[in-house]
Design a protein that fits this description.
GO terms for molecular function: protein-N-terminal asparagine amidohydrolase activity. The chain is of the alpha/beta class. The chain is about 25% helix and about 25% strand. The N and C termini lie far apart (about 45 Å).
């Protein structure tokens, strides 16, 4: 069980309430984090992580200065950083395959931290979830903690702003206090954040997740290239049904937390469905079964590039 708090190995908590009762400093750290101002991140330095995606990079990266993700309700944002190399990996986890996802996140950081001259430790930051009625957040919180305990590396839990410590009441309804986070790769600073830009290829990436895609590594930090797919989906014209439904119906059936979604959730779902209707076969998006690649331009935008 290599998950540590204040350099001491922890036992698996029976609940998040138990965890915070045992380690009150985690409560205080969570309160401080939740009270920090939300930063609007400049797209020209950002790599945005969507649901069921992760990306890792180092301070030597000239294309990405900030990793970020938001729109998390019951989902959790998982950040692992090595203090010596500065390598960091951010993932947006929804509980679909926690046990297989956590080793990928840890490996993404350790594989970029092999320089023996840069000794350090692995630090974990968990943000997300709230006190939702179905207890989806609670289950994911505990599964993530358990999955990290199973890793062979020592991992130090630094930020734990999850579930009830990320819960706020708005007009009598429970909501997550922090929806998004960013990390400054150069400094290691972790902060609450929002992102007006969620690209590149926002709709394509959303379509991958909507049609059942599993956790995917979307970034090659050595090349500064975002890689999407290839992935498969089949024609499904039945999904056009949702485009005629009202917002409440879409929220009720397509969200794990209908009362806590951001205002743009329904439009996001509709644009994803529209993309799938316009591309009923994934073959048209990935000709020859090849992935889509994106590289940062000198102006700071992501552009589609052809690669062999």
């Amino acid at each position: 069980m290599p998950l540590l708090i204040q350099n001491r190995r922890i036992e698996r908590p029976g609940s998040t309430v138990d965890l915070f009762a045992r380690y009150p400093h985690l409560q205080e750290n969570a309160r401080v984090f939740r009270s920090m101002p939300v930063v609007d991140v400049d797209p020209k330095c950002l790599l945005y992580i969507q649901q069921r995606e992760f990306a890792a990079t180092t301070p030597a990266d000239n294309s990405v200065a900030v990793l970020g993700s938001d729109d998390a309700t019951t989902c959790h944002l998982v950040l692992v950083r090595h203090t010596g190399s500065g390598a960091a990996c951010l993932a947006h986890c929804d509980g679909s395959s926690t046990w297989s996802e956590v080793p990928l996140i840890v490996k993404a950081v350790t594989s970029l931290s092999k320089d023996p001259a840069k000794e350090g430790r692995l630090e974990l930051h968990l943000v997300g979830g709230f006190d939702d009625e179905s207890k989806t957040s609670h289950k994911l919180s505990l599964n993530l903690l358990s999955a990290f305990q199973r890793q062979k590396e020592d991992i130090h839990l630094e930020t734990c702003c999850i579930t009830e410590m990320n819960d706020v009441l708005v007009d009598g309804a429970h909501r997550p206090g922090v929806h998004g986070i960013g990390i400054n790769i150069k400094t290691g600073e972790v902060f609450p954040a929002s992102f007006p830009y969620k690209g590149p290829a926002e709709e394509l990436r959303s379509a991958r997740t909507f049609t059942g895609g599993q956790m995917a590594d979307i970034y090659d930090s050595n090349k500064g290239v975002v890689k999407i797919g290839p992935c498969k989906w089949s024609p499904n014209l039945d999904i056009s049904f949702w485009l005629s439904q009202d917002d409440d119906t879409i929220l009720k059936y397509l969200s794990t937390s209908p009362t806590a979604e951001p205002p743009h959730f329904v439009q996001h779902i509709k644009s994803t469905i529209q993309f799938l209707l316009e591309h009923p076969s994934s073959d048209s998006v990935f000709p020859g079964g090849q992935p889509q690649h994106y590289r940062r331009t000198e102006q700071g935008d992501w552009e589609n590039v052809n690669q062999t």
